Amino acid sequence: xxxxxxxxxxxxxxxxxxxxxxxxxxxxxxxxxxxxxxxxxxxxxxxxxxxxxxxxxxxxxxxxxxxxxxxxxxxxxxxxxxxxxxxxxxxxxxxxxxxxxxxxxxxxxxxxxxxxxxxxxxxxxxxxxxxxxxxxxxxxxxxxxxxxxxxxxxxxxxxxxxxxxxxxxxxxxxxxxxxxxxxxxxxxxxxxxxxxxxxxxxxxxxxxxxxxxxxxxxxxxxxxxxxxxxxxxxxxxxxxxxxxxxxxxxx
Length: 251
Known about the structure:
This protein has 251 residues and is of the alpha+beta class. It has a domain at 47-191: Dna Ligase, domain 1. Helices cover 36% and strands 20% of the residues. It has 8 helices and 8 strands, in the order H-H-H-H-H-E-E-E-H-E-E-E-E-H-E-H. The protein has helices at 2-23, 25-36, 40-47, 54-60, 62-69, 105-116, 175-187, 210-218, and strands at 73-80, 90-91, 94-102, 134-142, 145-152, 157-162, 165-170, 190-191. Strands 1, 2, 3, 4, 5, 6, 7 and 8 form an 8-stranded antiparallel sheet that branches. It starts with a helix and ends in a 33-residue tail after the last helix.
């Protein structure tokens, strides 16, 4: 009997709730919107596109573009072409040779505006006959995701790295802007040291305590300084390499 009463009470409450929702459409709409939009924030991130030039946003993808536009931190690294025997630190396949600071909001906005949103500064339908020369890598970090932007000079261009893909863009009209970014940043650069070695959470790669400085002084060789065994066979004469990779701007 007790169980029957509890069951009837449950049915009554359920009927009453449904009746209340039917009588008050605003409640029904509120319930439906909550059920349907619980993942709206995720969809809005996936569908949102920054106000980049259409040819750029479509080429690099929405996720890469959102990282650049909504970056919480922008780290600057000095980079160079990677030699065959290079065994030091790398970023996107290039030699990471220095750390040049964290961009403030003003510089970040300048990069966004001049390189990604100003059509006069980017040539999307014409390539230059030059080889991209790595100078600075800007890492736009948003949460645990990031998009890298390589600045090249004097083959004026920038390349966007994301998800294992790279997209180069001809920025010859923005030559003065690129030099105005590269030159001051390189003047601030310091030798890069592994943040993991220094027990740092941020990838600054700069000793910030006396203990960290002492640790750096003890390291005379790169962390990955293993020896490469030389083959007993005579080495073949190096053949001239024909550059057909992504860094040839007129590919």
